[in-house]
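Customer escalation, tier 2.

The customer says the design service returned an amino acid string that "doesn't look like it belongs to this structure." They asked us to rerun it and document both sides in this ticket. The original structure tokens are below, unchanged.
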């Protein structure tokens, strides 16, 4: 199920006055920073249902994870528009309905890897110019099943704290959140939109690892 998008940000001052700001009017980086916080929809991971995730990796090693609707099935294209700032757009397709569009403002020209269903290497492709707007569409080369590097890093981080995927999944909510957050920090991965996204991804890895390790 897709997340609901926030509409307004309300600032309350000491004198009791309030200022209401349309969330969509905030700078993109500020929107993302706010949505990563636990108060923005809660950070409780989900143990039930299906989950789909997109992992993006940059040339400098930075990694972000986005949780998306399970209806999306494949990566359509990744492109960057310069007008004059750089904005990256990752388009995901589905069997019916509109594609999902993930917008990136952090160094969009530096994305080197996309993981969704499969691993995709991101390489320079076609450039198109319209007046002052430059659009760079990248070539995506599909490889192995997605999340191999993340699973390896997850198992290493779990072993380092002397626990198991099964034990993580059996913890109470508070203990689980603390441990999953510590593990994702060791893995060097952050939420692209909401903190709950990255915690759900940790649960996804734990459940997958628990099945393969018995």
């Amino acid at each position: 199920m897709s997340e609901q998008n926030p509409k307004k940000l309300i600032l309350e001052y000491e004198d009791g006055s309030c200022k209401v700001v349309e969330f969509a009017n905030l700078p993109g980086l500020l929107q993302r920073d706010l949505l990563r916080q636990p108060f923005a929809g809660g950070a409780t991971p989900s143990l039930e249902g299906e989950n789909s995730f997109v992992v993006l990796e940059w040339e400098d090693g930075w990694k972000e994870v986005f949780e998306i609707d399970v209806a999306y099935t494949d990566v359509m294209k990744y492109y960057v528009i310069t007008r004059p700032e750089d904005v990256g757009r990752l388009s995901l397709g589905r069997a019916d309905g509109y594609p999902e569009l993930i917008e990136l403002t952090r160094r969009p020209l530096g994305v080197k890897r996309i993981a969704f269903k499969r691993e995709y290497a991101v390489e320079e492709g076609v450039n198109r110019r319209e007046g002052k707007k430059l659009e760079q569409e990248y070539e995506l080369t599909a490889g192995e099943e997605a999340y191999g590097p993340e699973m390896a890093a997850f198992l290493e981080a779990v072993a380092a704290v002397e626990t198991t995927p099964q034990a993580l999944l059996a913890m109470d909510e508070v203990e689980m959140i603390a441990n999953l957050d510590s593990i994702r920090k060791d893995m060097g991965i952050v939420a692209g939109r909401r903190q709950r996204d990255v915690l759900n991804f940790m649960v996804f890895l734990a459940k997958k690892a628990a099945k393969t390790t018995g």
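Tier 2 assessment: The sequence is consistent with the input. The first helix runs from residue 28 to 36. The chain has a mean pLDDT of 88. Sent an explanation to the customer and offered a walkthrough call.
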